[in-house]
What we know:
With 327 residues, this protein is an alpha/beta fold.
Amino acid sequence: MNICVTGGAGYIGSFIVRQLVDAGHRVVVVDNLCKGHASAVDARAQFVLADCGDRTAMADLFRRQGVQAVVHMAAFSLVGESVTEPGNYYRNNFVASLSLIEAMLSAGVKRLVFSSTAATYGEPADQPITEEFATEPINPYGRAKLMVEQALADFVQAFEIGAVSLRYFNVAGALPDGSLGEDHDPETHLIPLVLAAAAGRRDRISIFGDDYPTPDGTCVRDYIHVLDLADAHVRAIDAAQPGALKVYNLGNGDGFSVRQVIEAAQGVVGRTIPTAVAPRRAGDPPVLVASSAKIARELGWEPRRGLEQILADAWAWHRSHPDGYAD
Ligand code: UDP
C-alpha cells in the first residue's frame, strides 16, 4: 500500500516507518521537524517537510502520491506542557487532526491509524485497564486525543472510511543494534533519564514521589517496547474497515514501579544509579497497566519484549548516541 506517516521523523514514528517499509509498503513521511529528526527517517521512505494540519497541501500530496492509508503520529506529547500551554495542544493535536481527516476525505483516502494514549482514561481505580473503561482524561493532552477519537467515531459513520485508534501505555526501547532510538529535547521520560544517570550524564534520577498507594510507594507503569508497538501499527492498517472505529490498548500487561525500573536498569548497565526522592509530579496517576487482550484477540498482536529487553536496547542506543541524533 501507499502509506503516509505524519510525524514519521519522531521517536515512535521512525520505528513505524521502518517496519512498514520492511512489510513491503511504500511510505511517504510528512513531518515539520519541530520535534523530529530528519536523520531518523528510514532512507527507503520519501520525506516531505510539511505541516500535516495544512489541509490543502495534504490533500494535494495524498492525490499526487496515491496515498491509500494514513498513520497519524504527529503530535505534541508532554502532559505537563499541555497543562500550561493548552492552546498549543488543542490546536496541534486536535485541530490539525481534524484538517488531516478532511484532507483524507477530499482525496479519497479511506484508512487511518491514529496514535492515541492511555491518558484518555485519566485515573482509573481498577487495573488492568480495558477499552471498556470510562474515558475521563485529567489533562489537555489526554482530552485532545480523546476529542480526535470522538470525532473519528462520527467521521466513520458519515463517510466510508475506517479508523483504528491505538492507546499507548509507556513506550521505550530502541533497535537492538543501537542505530535508532529515542531523542527528545527536553527529555522527560523515565527510562532515558535513568540511563543518562547511569552514564553519568546526569547526577541522579529523581523519583517523583514515594508515597503513592503502591507496594513501594512509587508510580507503577506498563512499559512497551517500541518495536512491539510499531508491529501493532502494521497490523492496524489492515484492520481499518469502512464504517468502523476500532480502539485498542497497547501495553505489556505488566506493571513496574519507578524503583523497579531503576533496579532493572542497574542490572542491565552493571552499575549503581544514583537516585533522589523528589516531590510528586502533577497529574501522575499512581498506577496505569494495560489489558491488551482485545488487540491480541482481534489482530493477533502480542508483545514479545519485556522490560529487560527494553532497557538493554535503550542502553545500546544511549551508548552509541550519547547526544542523540545530534542534528
Ligand atoms: N518519573 C520519575 N522521574 C523522572 C521521570 C519520570 O520518577 O525523572 C516517573 C513519573 O512520575 C511516572 C513514571 O516515572 O510515574 C513514568 O513517567 P514517564 O514521564 O516516563 O511517562 P508517563 O507515565 O508520564 O507517560
